[in-house]
Specification:
Blueprint: E1 3-7, H1 13-22, E2 26-30, H2 34-42, E3 46-48, H3 51-55, E4 60-63, H4 68-76, H5 80-83, E5 89-92, H6 98-108, E6 125-127, H7 138-152, E7 157-163, H8 170-190, E8 198-204, H9 215-221, E9 223-229
Parallel strand pairs: 1-2, 1-4, 2-3, 4-5, 7-8
Antiparallel strand pairs: 6-9, 7-9
Helix pairs in contact: 4-6, 7-8
Bound molecules: NADP nicotinamide-adenine-dinucleotide phosphate.
Length: 237
């Protein structure tokens, strides 16, 4: 079951919403009017009034507005893309210009940049003990430096990628990677970074930094990577 966001529950969109609901997905659909929200409820979806609520937490967002100009409004001139989490998929159903689709893809791409390089900021990895998500030792100083930088550069965004070593089940390690990423996120927030600047993802044991099967390799793999993104925050509405 996926969380699906939907924009444009009109002639084409409404039957799609119904089918997605019937297939067991949780669908949140935009309703700009009371009437539309009532229709959305009748389809079995949750009506929301804001594009940010369509994007947040969704695995997939479907845009089925009528014109290419409306696609541009929804995808390029609103907060929608910035509220979608890393790895979420945007589907544009509207018949429109391929150029618009390319612009949307470029705007949505979380391209990684080099980020700041001075002093501790050049270090963008925080390491953890076995089966632990507590930030310790130099990790504390590294996180503090990044928090200070983010607080001073409010348009800058980072993605925190949580990783584990290979021991434990795949599912457990996804959870552990997430706890590590959240631990760094909380520390950044406590020290002045803003929520909108930070997204998190867990890769569990899937992307080891070191290939071996011993403690030396495991120690390198129990980590959170702080990835600086080149796409700045959209201006606040
Ligand atoms: N209809 C067909 O048989 C058919 C066949 C193939 C392809 N298509 C393509 O599918 C697309 C959708 O067509 P449709 O007939 O379903 O259109 P539609 O009935 O006019 O529905 C468009 C939906 O988009 C919403 N919308 C428009 N502008 C918006 C904006 N700026 N922000 C948020 N929501 C907005 C509308 O919301 P409100 O209700 O609040 O106005 C409406 O729910 C078109 O590109 C069309 O070419 C349609």
């Amino acid at each position: 079951m996926s969380q699906v966001g939907f924009v444009g529950a009109g002639r084409m969109g409404a039957p799609m919403v119904r089918r997605l609901v019937e297939a067991g997905h949780e669908v949140r659909a935009l309703g700009r009017s009371v009437e539309k929200r009532r229709e959305v409820s009748e389809l079995g979806a949750q009506p929301v009034t804001d594009l940010a609520d369509v994007g947040a937490e969704s695995d997939v967002v479907v845009v089925c507005v009528f014109t290419d100009e409306q696609v541009q409004q929804v995808c390029l001139e609103s907060v929608l893309l910035t509220t979608m989490r890393p790895g979420a998929v945007l589907v544009i159903h509207t018949t429109g210009s391929p150029r618009t689709a390319e612009s949307v893809a470029a705007a949505g791409a979380d391209e990684e940049g080099p980020g700041p390089q001075a002093g501790l900021l050049a270090t963008k990895v925080v390491y953890f003990d076995f089966d632990n998500s507590e930030i310790k030792g130099t990790g504390t100083d590294v996180v503090a430096a990044h928090a200070k930088y983010l607080a001073a550069h409010s348009g800058t965004r980072v993605r925190l990628e949580g990783h584990t070593d290979e021991r434990g089940s795949r599912e457990y390690n996804i959870g552990l990677g997430e706890r590590r990423a959240q631990s760094v996120r909380r520390a950044l927030l406590l020290q002045g970074a803003a929520d909108a600047q930070i997204s998190t993802v867990s890769y569990g044991e899937e992307r080891p930094a070191a290939p071996g099967h011993d403690e030396a390799a495991w120690a390198k793999n129990r980590r959170v990577e702080i990835m600086y993104l080149t796409q700045p925050l959209a201006p606040k509405r």
